[in-house]
Amino acid sequence: MSPQVSAEALKRIDVAGTDPALIRNFCIIAHIDHGKSTLADRMLQITGAVKPRDMRAQYLDRMDIERERGITIKSQAVRMPWEVDGTPHALNMIDTPGHVDFTYEVSRSLAACEGTLLLVDAAQGIEAQTLANLYLALENDLTIIPVLNKIDLPAAQPEKYAEELANLIGAEPEDVLRVSGKTGEGVEAVLDRIVTEINPPVGDPDAPSRAMIFDSVYDTYRGVVTYVRVVDGMLRSRERIEMLSTGTTHDLLEIGVSSPEPVPSKGLGVGEVGYLITGVKDVRQSKVGDTVTSARRPAEEPVAGYSEPKPMVFSGLFPIDGSDYPALRDALDKLKLNDAALVYEPETSVALGFGFRCGFLGLLHLEITRDRLEREFDLSLISTAPSVVYRVVMEDGSEHIVTNPSEYPEGKVAHVYEPMVRATVLTPSDYVGAVMELCQSKRGQMQGMDYLSEDRVELRYRLPLAEIVFDFFDQLKSRTKGYASLDYAEDGEDASALVKVDILLQGDQVDAFSAVVHKDKAYSYGVSMAGKLKELIPRQQFEVPVQAAVGSRIIARETIRAIRKDVLSKCYGGDISRKRKLLEKQKEGKKRMKMVGSVEVPQEAFIAALSSDDGKAEKK
């Protein structure tokens, strides 16, 4: 794990680490695909943190899935040496994701920094996630350095977007740095500005040690690797440490910094960002947001942690092979360490067996998590159609929280409350009508509209979360030719006319296919699901009705025809009554079979009908 590092590099790291005044902690925030990872690559090259022969594109994106999709999912911390006027400084950079589903990763990174680079694509300008991340940085009271990236592109308009960015943060257009992450132009000026403008970390070196855990990963050989930002005091190698929230103590086997590969050191002082290895294999003992302190001289107060993330979308994850359930539980435990926003609890389904009900921050988060479980832990999974949390109030005054349609209570319902979100859409002014039409079709209420410039409009809507989690983003992109961007945050709940649609096979309810939908869409959901199951379920020896029902009322029906044997094949002519007698006998047999027979739904039918892709399709 620890590669050979030159004595000069180690010396630079230790020299910089002795004095907090020589440390700068910063992160890069931007909308998705505005060039954060490319700029981080150039910084690693220019500062000499990565040797030219080791360099590769998206150096800090360690997962295959990140490299394939070209997006950052996990924030990564790295230390880089940089000299200004002959004085060596240590720059601790945290590369953050840009997609709205990974905002929690961004908030944790911001809590560990004093400043941030606000990166904007010089060809695309400010987008929704740029604004969302900027507001997060302002809440954390960070120094903001505006940077325009991709100035080498033929379509770049640096003057126009520099003015837009300057107006947004209250600066002058000439203060906006112009760089190209691809060619390296202007990157050295960015590093100089980080040293001169971002404040050094503040802390008490003589106080009891306190370090905040902002990330952790699971290493098969070394156990849990915890990433910390030291606030007060000093953590030293081989000392005994304590986790304040759990009260557990461990021996510190190794301490060091990521530069960008792990480099062991003697200790971490005030303001430093580094990693700790204790050899602990129990993933629950290293919680993100916890405070690490010395067991010999423990701190009294923990560092102010993070707010817990609230899952927005729920989906069931079930192993295709039931014997993989323990492996799925262990995999989720390990992934939870790596992804603090993941929430899960055990669940059983009549149709699918044992699995977990998982909470995610959005559909991309769900997709990435399922992909990671299948790749990293070699599992084959079914994920049920995504749903949100509803609060159901009965006529007798009792309340039920419904995360799964199968939990929907029987009896007379007074009100159903669904979660709402406050959505911000940024779009070129040509597409305002198309965006408004889409938001209104999704039961949205307009809250406001502002022109950021002559041709860019910010639209604010209040929408039901259930309408956003399926195909809203895809439709928004297709209606605006890919130019619009979306950001959303939770905004309470509203009472709505929602109903539960049940799917019945031969009169028996199949819990896995149930869904809670708006009453105006109940019919179309029932028709599409019944039609889909008619195609997917193999024909039986008897006729099988597939019905969609709201309460006791059937709203849609399809019939899977029986497989019929040709009982008349041996009749060559003869009396018609003989043929009729044979057909009547067959009819009686089918009736008896229908009374005792049960319909087996094959696994493939569940996978096809419940996969999130089909979930999207059935809502379109």
Summarize the structure.
Helix content is 28%, strand content 32%. The chain contains 16 helices and 31 strands. α13 (522-536) runs antiparallel to α15 (603-610).
Give a verbal description of the structure:
There is one protein chain. Helices cover 28% and strands 32% of the residues. The chain is an alpha+beta fold and 620 residues long. It has five domains: 7-197, P-loop containing nucleotide triphosphate hydrolases (Rossmann fold, 3-Layer(aba) Sandwich), CATH 3.40.50; 210-294, Translation factors (Elongation Factor Tu (Ef-tu), domain 3, Beta Barrel), CATH 2.40.30; 313-383, Elongation Factor G (Translational Gtpase), domain 3 (Alpha-Beta Plaits), CATH 3.30.70; 391-496, Alpha-Beta Plaits, CATH 3.30.70.240; 499-619, Alpha-Beta Plaits, CATH 3.30.70.2570. The strands form six sheets. Strands 11-10-16-7-8-15-12-13 form an eight-stranded antiparallel sheet. It has a six-stranded mixed sheet with strand order 2-3-1-4-5-6, sandwiched between helices. Helix 13 (522-536) packs antiparallel against helix 15 (603-610). 43% of the residues are buried. Mean pLDDT is 76; it is low at 1-17 and 611-620.
